[in-house]
Amino acid sequence: MDKIKEVTEELLDDHVDDHVDEEIQRCFLKEDPKCFFVFAGAGSGKTRSLIKTLTFLDETLGDWLLTNRKQIAVITYTNAACDEISRRLHYKSIFSVSTIHSFLWELIKNYQSDIKAWVINSINLEIAELEEKQRKSKAGKTSEKRAEDIRKKQERLAKINTVRRFTYNPNGDNVGYDSLNHSEVVKMGSKFICAEDTMQNILISQYPILLIDESQDTKKELVDAIFTVCERHKGKFIVGMFGDTMQRIYQDGKENLSQCIPDDWVKPRKIMNHRSASRIVTLANG
């Protein structure tokens, strides 16, 4: 009898986080829209909540999004994750599922004159920084490599004005002087979003809802830019972040993210660990 009671309690525990999905759904109420951050540790069903949220949005806003030619943007960290989320959403056109790099490039790729100006300024700053280090360094292999880096950047800078269109491949190498690298796209795209009203208006017009998976590893520049847009366009732009702030894998994510979430955001927390070894054994032997 005690064993049955124990198993029943374990099964009931599966619903301990049901309120989280309900809290998320309330964030999309037309009369009181809210941004949110879902604290979700390993095994808590974070992806399940993300898919459930997207399914809810399809049911409630799908027709409106199609009619108005808008999409829900979903950013995740890998192409494999993009493919899996898209599959579970049945590849519906109201969802734009992409990696960070692809998302930013789609936003900025048509602003070639702005891209050129940013690249020229960025290269000049990099050269100035390298030259300053060179002046303070002693002769040696490090100095020689730095001199070679300066030469390559100066060479690229000399060719920039001949570039008619910059290119970028989010999934491959970008080696030509007219190609942008991954770091440049993230920094540039985030800067444009943060500083340019036009880019912010394009973003919220095209993607009134943005959901970010594995947000603890999202590039810090983009996180800061998104916080800026949310503050400036309250009620017009809903951002939902899903992440485990204790499980940062990459060092270019935003440090102390949990402490940086704005006060007016909803912050539901998932506590269940569906991968708990003790739970699995108990349920299997019940």
**Main β-sheet, in a few words?**
6 strands, parallel
The parts where pLDDT drops under 50 for at least 5 residues are: 6-11, 280-286
Q: Any idea what the CATH superfamily of the largest domain is called?
A: P-loop containing nucleotide triphosphate hydrolases
Shape: elongated
Strand and helix layout:
Elements: H1 2-13, H2 18-26, E1 36-40, H3 46-67, E2 72-76, H4 79-88, E3 95-99, H5 100-108, H6 112-136, H7 141-160, H8 182-195, H9 197-206, E4 209-212, H10 220-232, E5 238-243, H11 257-260, E6 269-270, H12 277-285
Parallel strand pairs: 1-5, 1-6, 2-3, 2-4, 4-5
Features:
286 residues; alpha/beta; Rossmann fold; 6-stranded parallel beta sheet; 6 strands
Q: Any overview of this molecule?
A:
The protein is an alpha/beta fold and 286 residues long. It folds into 2 domains: 17-106 and 187-270, 3-Layer(aba) Sandwich (Rossmann fold), CATH 3.40.50; 112-167. Helix content is 55%, strand content 9%. It is built from 12 helices and 6 strands. Helix 10 links the parallel strand 4 and strand 5 (238-243). Helix 8 packs across helix 9 (197-206). The longest helix has 25 residues, at 112-136. The protein is elongated and about 65 Å long.
